[in-house]
Write a structure and sequence with these properties.
The complex is a heterodimer of chains A (102) and B (206). Chain A is α+β, with helices and mostly antiparallel strands and 102 residues long. Chain A has one domain: Glutaredoxin (3-Layer(aba) Sandwich). Chain A is built from 4 helices and 4 strands. Chain B has one domain (3-204): Glutaredoxin, CATH 3.40.30. The chains are: A alpha+beta (102), B alpha/beta (206). β3 of chain A pairs antiparallel with β1 of chain B.
Chain lengths: 102, 206
């Protein structure tokens, strides 16, 4: 995930247009903060201690990725929703760009 | 901190990629997760404690997954000890709890504490479970002990053996003199918070 962040930041055409956030499902603020510091995570992480977010999206297994297109009228549209991580950050970034039509 | 608060007015157009994960399990393989048996909602606790804070912790010797045996009293005057009983291998919460301790060894080190992980499973089961649990993130740094035969004898000695044969999800913090300083017989369906255990360890000092 840190590589994905760096790949976005390194692209002038994408920097500022794609943002990453992480949601630690079942984790407390303390646990998420510990994780963020230990693994030097450069993007925002949020705790979902009571599984409220996890339940609202259908109690998915983790890791799970959701891509959301933010529109000018304030609405948002999910363009990617899939279980599982990735092994190549640059390829995943290209997938996000292509899938979203950014 | 809410997501809405953090991001309000920051973005007008663009993409948001949301990564949902469980922190301690981030390095676990899909194979491991696919093999976790879903137990459903269980009775929160189902035993009567036989020990109290302030008492001497009952001594025991159990076989370790990595070979040999571990005796609680071998740590006397050397290490504080945290005993983590978890109900069973290959079940959901247990498969998150120990990976959490595995990535937070520094909290145990800071309090000069060793962690002993115990279940009522046999050694081959624990071997397979812990090996796959940590695939991609190194081995467990703490001993994993089998309380399989006589079945649940140590769990029973502490009063944390469920009537269905698994142990309670329970934590015992024991100081270097062998005195029990903290007990948490937790809801079996829920993972104890790391910060609570860290707080109890910090009370021990070095």
């Amino acid at each position: 995930m840190n590589e994905l962040y760096q790949a976005i930041e390194a692209r002038k055409d994408l920097k500022g247009k794609i943002k990453l956030i992480g949601i630690g499902t079942g984790n407390s603020d303390f646990e998420v903060d510990f994780f963020r510091k230990k693994y030097e995570v450069p993007f925002p992480l949020f705790s979902d201690e009571d599984y409220a977010i996890h339940k609202s999206i259908g109690e998915v297994r983790t890791p799970y990725f959701i891509g959301v297109r933010l529109k000018g009228d304030g609405s948002a549209e999910v363009f990617y929703s899939k279980l599982g991580g990735f092994s190549n950050a640059k390829k995943f970034l290209e997938l996000m760009v292509k899938s979203s039509g950014l | 901190m809410t997501i809405k608060k953090h991001f309000s007015l920051k973005w007008i157009l663009g993409l948001l990629v949301i990564f949902i994960w469980f922190s301690a399990a981030s390095g676990q393989s899909p194979d491991f997760k696919a093999n976790i048996f879903q137990v459903g909602k269980l009775k929160p606790t189902d035993s009567v404690l036989k020990v109290k804070v302030g008492e001497q912790a009952p001594d025991f010797t159990l076989p370790a997954v990595k070979g040999g045996e571990v005796t609680l009293s071998q740590y006397r005057d050397k290490k504080n000890v945290v005993i983590s009983f978890v109900p069973a291998a290959w079940t959901p919460v247990c498969s998150d709890q120990w990976p959490g301790y595995n990535i937070s060894q520094e909290f145990f080190d800071q309090s000069d504490a060793i962690l002993l992980g115990i279940t009522v499973d046999n050694i081959p089961t624990l071997y397979a479970w812990t090996n796959q649990m940590c695939m991609g993130s190194g081995n467990l740094w703490f001993p994993v002990l089998s309380d399989f035969y006589p079945h649940g004898a140590v769990a029973s000695k502490y009063g944390v053996l469920h009537s269905d044969g698994v142990s309670e999800r329970s934590l015992f913090v024991i100081d270097k003199k062998g005195i029990i300083r903290y007990i948490d017989v937790h809801d079996i369906n829920d993972r104890p918070r790391l910060e609570v255990l860290v707080g109890e360890l910090q009370k021990l000092g070095k």
